[in-house]
Structure formats: structure tokens, C-alpha cells
Amino acid sequence: MQSIVVFDSGLGSLAFIRALISELPYESIVYFADRANHPYGRKSKEELGKIIHSNIRFISDEYKPKCIVVASITPSLLVLSKARSYSTVPLFGTYLYLDKAYVSSRNKGIALLVTSVLAKSMELDDILKGYTSRCRFKVIDATDLVEYVESGRFLYEKGVVEEVCGEINKDPAIDTILLGSTHLSFLEDYIKEATHSIVINPIVYNIDRIKGYLSNHDMLERGKRKRGLTEVIVSSKSDVDVKGFMNILSELGINIDSVRFRTVCR
């Protein structure tokens, strides 16, 4: 059976995969945690292009998947259009869905939490230009939040996220928050409670798009046995890094006994 392969530079993909398993329970899913290249959010556009190209080639050769999902918003917006020119399998990115935030906001004041490289990019500027006359986006560099999640510190300390929520609360016009990184899904409930705002998580809309494509092309698995997560690959520079990653998975309630880990040093 062909797999759906999902990759990111670390824990952000887990939120995506949990939702993907719930929505497509019969699919075989491979999760490639590219820890060796973490964080994507601090890489230049040129660096991201090389990393994504290398990962797509590796995944295509190793797994011959039915599709590949880049579960990271930053490379999806910055380099994925070029990647489609050389990918031999259907390639999905993860996108912001600004329209969902715009429709949800009563005041038309929206906080957009993104990585530093995306916050400074022309690509994001171009996307936001279409909304300048209709609403106001406050772009917030949330790279520290992404790394806070990746480290696992979000499981036991809240200091970093409290600072960001405090910054948002200073602007009374903001009533909607758009999560611009899949990592931030782990903080969704806390952000919602701390800011009393509507929080838009783009993951659900991106999964709907994938499901629609697979269904329209008769590529969905339909059966009676729920499969769940079938394999995890960790690209890492050391065994210590892998052990730390596994400990975080365990703390998140992921049953690692049912997951095969394979260190890929590349």
C-alpha cells in the first residue's frame, strides 16, 4: 500500500498527522521529522529550497508515496511552487487560509503568528496586499514560540506564550488570531483562553484539500481496520537528539511502541 508521507522540521507535523489520521483513518502514513534541519523558520529562502528538494527526492526514492505533504507553512509559501516542477508525485503544502480569518473577524483586526523568515518575506507581503483595504493584519514573529514547542518546554512552562498573548491583548481591535505555523497548534487552546479571541488553525482546511484531491482521483483507502501512524523517520545529527525527540512524543501521549524509529543522517 502506498503511503502519505508528511514532513516538517520537527514536532509541528504531529498536530497535522493527528488530524490527518482522524480524517483519513485507513491511510498508511509516514512521518518524516527532519530534526537535522530544524528550524525551517530561521532558514533563508535559498537554504529552504535545497532542503525541500533533498527531502522530496529522498522520500520519493525511498517510499514511492501516493503523495507528499510539506506540513510547514514557511517553506510551503516560499519554495513549494518551484518544487512542484521536479516532484514526481502529488505535492501538497500547508497554507494560511487568510479568507477564513477575514470572515471570522468582526473587527477586521487579525494577528498573524508566523516565523521570522516568513514575516520578512515578499511572498507574505504580496498575499496581504489583497486585504489592506478590508482589514488590518498585525504580523507577529512567533519563531520563539515555534522553538518553544519544538523543545518540549510548552509541556511544563507557559512564559513564552504569555508574552506573545500579552502583546496581542494590547491591541483591542484584534479579535482573531491566525496560526502561521503548524507547531502553534499545540498552543491553540491556551492562546484562545489567554486572548479571548477566535483562533484559526489552517490545518483542518489543508487536510480537507488533500482529502478532496485523493477522493477525486480515486486514491483514498477505504476499509474496516483503523491503521493510525505506521512509521516515523527522524533525520538527526546524533542519537541523543533522537532520544530527546522520543521522550517528547511519549509526553504528548503518542504510543511510541507502535511507531518504528529510524535515524537518517543526511
Give your account of this protein's structure.
The chain has 266 residues and is of the alpha/beta class. The chain has two domains: 3-94 and 204-264, Rossmann fold, CATH 3.40.50.1860; 98-201, Rossmann fold. The chain is built from twelve helices and ten strands. The strands form two sheets. A six-stranded parallel β-sheet has the order 4-3-1-2-9-10, with helices on both faces. Strands 6-5-7-8 form a four-stranded parallel β-sheet, with helices on both faces. The radius of gyration is 18 Å and the shape is globular.
How would you summarize the topology of this molecule?
Blueprint: E1 3-8, H1 12-23, E2 28-33, H2 45-63, E3 67-70, H3 73-78, H4 80-83, E4 91-92, H5 98-104, E5 109-114, H6 116-119, H7 122-129, E6 136-141, H8 143-150, H9 159-169, E7 176-179, H10 188-195, E8 198-200, H11 203-216, E9 229-235, H12 239-251, E10 261-264
Parallel strand pairs: 1-2, 1-3, 2-9, 3-4, 5-6, 5-7, 7-8, 9-10
Helix pairs in contact: 1-11, 9-10
